[in-house]
Amino acid sequence: MEEKTDWSRRTFLGVGALGVLGLAACGGEPAAPQVDVQVPKALLDQAAGLRGGSVGMLSQKLYAEAANKALDKSLQVFAQATGTTVRNDLVSGDAGDMVAKMDAEVKAGTSRDLAFMSDRRFVGQLHNLGHLTDVTDVVEEMRTLYGEPATEAANYCVFDGRWYAIPYHFIASGMYLRKDWYEEKGIPLKPHYTWEELRDNALAVSDPAKRRYGWGLTVNRSGDANGFITNVINCYGGAIADNTGKKVVFNSPETVAAVEFIGDIYKNPKYAPMLPPGIGSWTDSSNNENWLAQILGLTLNQFSVYADSKTKKNPVYANTHVFNGATGPALDRPLAYGESNSFVVFKGAKNPDLAKLVAKYMVSGSALLGVAKEAPCLVNPSWDKVWDSDPYYTSGDPAFAALREQTRAPLPITTKTGYAFPQAPSPGEQAATAAYLLTDMMQSVIQGTRPAEAVAATHARIVQVFEQQGYKQ
C-alpha cells in the first residue's frame, strides 16, 4: 500500500472502562485482530488523576494496514479505559519532510505531545533541533519491569548519558532470497553472502522468459534504496561521517569502489536479465509488491514483506530464505542490528504525563501483541522480558529466535577501515539520507557520470547539509 505524505488522523474518545474492543472493517479491508487488549491495573491507577485529559500522537505508518488498525484498537482501548482522548495521526517516514514538518509545528506551538518513529533515522535530528524531552525516568522505570531494550537503542536514543526516546518495538534488518530458485541451480543457502556473490547468484537464477528476476533492489528515491546504498558503502569500508557523526568523510576510495559496484549492476548489459521491468522507478512499496508477485529472487527489506507473505498466505513465504545481510571487502560480518520505532515526547507538550503513560502502555502486553500479530516479524518487542511475555513471541514463527538475537547483537561492528557501527547518532547523516542524496548520486552514475565525480559532488552536498545542521567542516 502506498503511503500518503499528509497526516491521516484518527481520534479516540474516552467514555468509560473497556476491556475488549473490535474495530469494524472498512472499504473491504481486514478488521483489527481479535486480541483481548487490556490496560494493566498499574497504568489505570497512574491514569486516575489524568481522566478528562487529551493527548496528540504521531505514528510512523506501518506497512501492514492491519497493523495500523491494531494500533488504533490499542489506543482506543486505552482512551476508553482511562477516560482520556487520544488523537493519533499517521505519517509516512519516507516522504522526506517529516522532520521539517515536526520542526515547524514545535516552533509554532502546534505539535503533538508524543510520536513514535525510527530511532535510527529521526531521533538524532529532533534532538539536535532541541525539540525532545528527557525521558530517562520512563526508561529506567521500564528497565525494572522489562529488562534491557535492544542494544541499538542505546546508540540512537541516548545523548550525553540521557534517554530522549523510549524504545517501542524492534524492527530487524534482513534480506530474502528464493530458496527454491537457489536449490534448482545448486547454489547453497548460507547465513550471509558477499555483495558480489549476491549479484552473481541473482544473474544465475534469472530467467526473464519465466518472469524470474534475480535482483530486487532499486536505487530510485526510497528508504529501501537508501538502506541498500549505505550498506554497500559501509561494507566496502566507506561512510558518510566519521565515528563522531560530525565530520563528513564520504569522498574516499572505498566509497568510490562501492559506487562503481552498484552502478555496474544497472548499467552493464550483462546484468540486464536479472533486473525486473520498472526497477528504475520503484518506490518503497514496489519491492514488496514484486516479491509477493513471486517474480524476484532477492530483496532487502524490513520484515514487512515477510509479514505480508505470511498473513496473506502467499506461496512465496514457504520459499523464502531469510538471512542477516551481506558482507564486503571491509567487513566479514553483516551490519545487522536493526532499529526501534521509539516514542519521543516533544518539548511544549500540553500533557506530557499522559504522553508518557501512553508510551508505557504501548510497549508491552496486549497493546503490543495485537499489533505484532498483524505484522509478524516486522513488529517485535524491543525489551528483553517482553519476548517472554507471550508464547507468540517464542513460537509464533521460525524467524523469531534469530530476530531476538539481533536485539542482543554485540555492538559496535567495526570495519577494516576503522568505522564502528552503529556510529554516534548524526543529525547531519540523517538529514542527508532523508534528502535522498545517495539515490540522486546513483542516478547520476547510471546516466553516465563517473563514480569518482559523482562521489565528490555528493560529498560537497553532504557537507552543505552538515553545516546547515551546525557542524562546520
Automatic annotation (TrEMBL):
An example Pfam family from this entry, by short name, is SBP_bac_1
Q: Which SUPFAM superfamilies match?
A: Periplasmic binding protein-like II (SSF53850)
Q: Which domain of life is it from?
A: Bacteria
Matches recorded under InterPro entries: Bact_solute-bd_prot1, SBP, TAT_signal
Q: What is this protein called?
A: ABC transporter substrate-binding protein
Q: Which organism is it from?
A: Kibdelosporangium aridum
